[in-house]
Amino acid sequence: MALHLPFYANAPHIIHIVQGRGVLGLIFSGCPETFEESQQGQKGQQGQQGQQQDRHQKIRRFRQGDIIAVPAGVAYWTYNDGDSQLVLVHFLHMDNEDNQLDQHPRRFHIAGNPEDEFGQQESQQGRNQTRGPHGLRGSRNNVYSGFDTQPLADALNVDEETARKIQGENENRRNIIRVQGQLDLVTPPRTRRERQEEERLQQELQEERQQQSQGNGLEETFCSARLIQNINNPGCTDVYSPQAGRLSPVNKFDLLILRSLGLSAEWGFLYRNGIYSPHWNINAHSAIYAIRGRARVQVVDDNGNSLFDDELSQGQVLTVPQNFGVVKQAGNEGFEWVALKTNENAKITPLAGRISAIRALPDDVVSNIYQLSRDEAKQVKNNRRQVSLFDSGSSSQ
């Protein structure tokens, strides 16, 4: 059982759960502590002096295929209570207006002595270490460690020894720590049916709020906001081709908090040799992360130059700028990916298929601009009847 120490970042980000399941805790300042220990559990601990009932903010469960939206400056922690490795992909949107620092991704840890994940510590010595009247401080990559121990102890109303532990003094553990046994968390027991019912009710609640187009301040917008959406559930597929694959976007209409983050996501899986129609992103940049398999990907700029024509394989990332053309074709083992898009309602225009740009043109316009006969123009417009996912074997219909 492993626990990732709490931290916050200087930009909003989206997390995709590639593998595993676990528990997520977000720290929303000013939100109520709605999870509390039962009276029975409290009575069992009355023998301990000064023991208080455990209360904390809402804990959320996540699983493989989930998309998690995290606002800038909101601290969170994750806990792997499953029986397999937990693999997550983080997309940070550094150009987002909520980031008022520079373009460097920064993680501000509030526990332990975590390593510098972005390799910037040497260039930021002046920021990470400052000299005060009591000497050099803040060398442990923990926000608490930069404060002087005595005023920190006063602020927390604890003794200085406890304050030094919070600062990570003599702490050798890094970003992820191993938990002995299991974490004793206040969580409601749930069956699969209860989970499905809760998700259905949450979806209905979000739809009602969206229709009303009015909010009640912080508690409605963040404290009770739905932050997790499963993106590769077959029941939520947006585009499906039995021969080519599946495609599932998540935008502000699926996950309301994405509206405030200015982000959306797309998950897709192409079967063997399947093609994702050549297209352009109308209103967003796209960062593509290859989860499994391989695909040939081509990217074309505004001058018709091929900027990228290569294989994208597991673990690699490719950024496609707004309006640049892109096409994917899976290899023999198929191709699964997830993409972050820098707009809360990202849209594409296909260059082939039933809803393509060519399909929208009159036959005679297609004939003239491409120097085709009318019959050839009709074939170009109508030979692909699928929407955006194609089987490479069906070159004509």
TrEMBL record:
In alphabetical order, the GO MF annotations are: nutrient reservoir activity
Q: Which Pfam families match?
A: Cupin_1
Q: Which residues form a coiled coil?
A: none
User: Where does it sit, as one GO cellular component term?
Assistant: extraorganismal space
Q: Does the keyword Signal apply?
A: yes
Alphabetically sorted, this entry's keywords are: Disulfide bond, Seed storage protein, Signal, Storage protein
Query: Per its UniProt record, what InterPro entries does this chain match?
Result: 11S_seedstore_pln, Cupin_1, RmlC-like_jellyroll, RmlC_Cupin_sf, Seed_Storage-Functional
Ranges where the record places region Disordered:
37-58, 109-147, 181-217
| Any single biological process term in GO | seed development
Q: Where is the composition biased (Polar residues)?
A: 120-131
| Domain Cupin type-1 intervals | 4-164, 229-378
Regions of biased composition (Low complexity) lie at 39-52
The reply on keyword Chaperone is no
Biased composition regions of type Basic and acidic residues, renumbered to the chain: 194-210
Q: Which family does it belong to?
A: Belongs to the 11S seed storage protein (globulins) family.
How does this protein assemble? Hexamer of two trimers; each subunit is composed of an acidic and a basic chain derived from a single precursor and linked by a disulfide bond.
* The protein's name in its UniProt record: 11S seed storage protein
Highest classification ranks of the organism: Eukaryota, Viridiplantae, Streptophyta, Embryophyta, Tracheophyta
